[in-house]
Amino acid sequence: MASRNRIGRREFIVTSAGALAAGLGSACGRVPASEIEEAAAKVGRLPQRALDRSGRKVSVLIGAATWAPEAVEAGILCGINYWHKSDEWEGRSVPPAILKNREAHYCEVCVDRVRGNHETGVIDEQAHYDFVKHALERTGLRYFDDMMFHFGYHRTAEVKSNPAFLRTYERLKKEGLVRHLCLSQHSYNGNGRVPDGEDRAMILTAVVADGVYEHAQFAFTFGEGEALNKFVSLAKSKGFGTIAMKTTGGAARMQANREFMGKFPSGTTPHNALARWLTTRTDLSAAVIQINNLEQFVDTYSGAGKPLRAADARAIEVMTAYANREVCRLCNDCMSHCGQGVAIADILRYERYATDYGERERARRLYAQLDKKGDACLVCGSCLPHCPQGLNVPAKLADAHRLLS
Ligand code: SF4
Ligand code: SF4
Asked: Which residue, by CA, sits nearest to atom 4 of ligand 1?
């Protein structure tokens, strides 16, 4: 069972010959094709499962345009067929293997609110339409399979009261430029910049009841609270697809912590245990994990669809305990208790980008756009009793400010 997806390197290269002929390797000059093939052979073909009621099948772990190019190419060899944030590929950076075999890949475009950020911006039919058309011109992908409303709705009432995003989708769909509708959903409860903002599980439940969207992405990892777990089960029962993002729960900082790793169960790694857990012990349709090089790809994605061994189960236990002590789960419960309006969850989300995903430049860029940064914290302590994890929020904010300034 454990080796169900594992195939020999030689056999793998024979089965992937079609992909190589289609242009694989040519977008990734820095890393020799042999190393990409070697990595892909170690991972093997990923199993697939139904994404949502559209009947499409996707690899149990999907890929992202934010990955290192060599990891994207190894992923294609392993049968990864859904690409998150495909609009971030620019012209020559679109993998030739995807352009030449376009129908074999599901490419997603992420569409943000305009004239402000995810809290203050608005939904605007024409601006979103223009954005998608421009993204198609930039990438040359011809159409996007999935059009994603990035960050999602602020409250359940908005799902019905503001149909502008749906109108954009219908226009683009008629023109054959998009095919399916999805959203990523963040929490807005307690957020002073979003009046009457609500929690993501509540909003997602309303989205499923509304019946228009086909699948959703949201932050989800081990040790998640009851509300989100209930939503994931509900979604599965309704044929609504769920893709977990921000899944690592601090796995990279755990790996960098000598003391933690000194007591870590032998025979597994944080990312491999995570991949096994996400793909075999949850009701999710799929999940995505950020990958910055081939080594990470092999370590993490070789766990996709494989059973959770005793060492992995123990690893998830110790990782959950560590994450509860150290890593903000972005629940927003502290936010309404901060009289200074510090963007606590956004700041700690950017800290995760820098610390856990190796995306320090992006994190710093996003941090620079915040109106109230970590140094606006007066260390008054009002938020402390409201963090379900008991995090020392002011200390976390000070650390994040040093890291991101
Ligand atoms: S300690 Fe800082 S973040 Fe917490 S409520 Fe006070 S000012 Fe806001
Ligand atoms: S600091 Fe605590 S309460 Fe605030 S968003 Fe993070 S986990 Fe939730």
From this structure: 383
